[in-house]
Design brief:
The strands form 2 sheets. Strands 1, 3, 5, 7, 8, 10, 11, 13, 14, 16 and 17 form an 11-stranded parallel sheet that branches. This protein is 14% helix and 37% strand. It is mainly β and 177 residues long.
Length: 177
């Protein structure tokens, strides 16, 4: 894996985290316990910071970045991802906030200052535009996303199951050494 410092700040994580050797993590990034970063993920905590919660998985080919501070936006937009989040393959997250128990479908894009509340599914290929807020408990689909319907109880339960499945998988990878 490529873990690189930027301006003297190096990504931090403990030994319960799995980071694939083909991923690149740079700068001010913190990963919570039992999280995983899969092949070909690029995460740059260079012009702001990235915080990834516990039991969260960032799947193959995803890109994580943020927005620098500016005169019109003095704090910029960090990237904050909660606990038990599944970020599907080839997702782009940019300067947004994701709550807990979220599934971001493959190929989705979540843009600057978007806020995704807890217990949400974002359909594959969807676009969450800047400054959009996704309310807890719903499926969102489309480009730009629209609230499609409330999540079923089965879908809500699956959000935790998905995260748990990736904790089990990363444990298997870590055991392989």
């Amino acid at each position: 894996m490529t873990i690189r410092s930027y301006k003297g700040i190096t990504p931090t994580y403990d030994n319960s985290v799995y980071i694939d050797e083909s991923s690149v993590l740079v700068g001010d990034i913190t990963l919570g316990k039992d999280s995983s970063v899969w092949p070909l993920v690029a995460a740059r905590g260079d012009v702001n910071y990235i915080r990834i919660g516990e039991r969260t998985n960032i799947q193959d080919g995803s890109v994580l970045h943020l927005t620098r501070a500016s005169e019109s936006n003095p704090d910029g937009y960090p990237l904050i991802i909660g606990d038990d989040v599944t970020v599907g393959h080839k997702v782009m997250l940019h300067g947004c906030q994701l709550g807990n128990r979220i599934l971001v479908g493959m190929g989705a894009i979540v843009m600057d200052n978007a806020i995704v509340e807890d217990d949400v599914i974002i359909g594959g290929g969807s676009l969450v535009p800047p400054n959009k807020r996704l309310e807890s408990g719903y499926l969102y689909v489309g480009s730009p996303v629209k609230q499609a319907r409330p999540l079923t109880e089965q879908e809500r339960a699956f959000l935790k199951v998905s995260a748990d499945n990736y904790v089990q998988l990363k444990d298997e990878y870590l055991a392989e050494g």
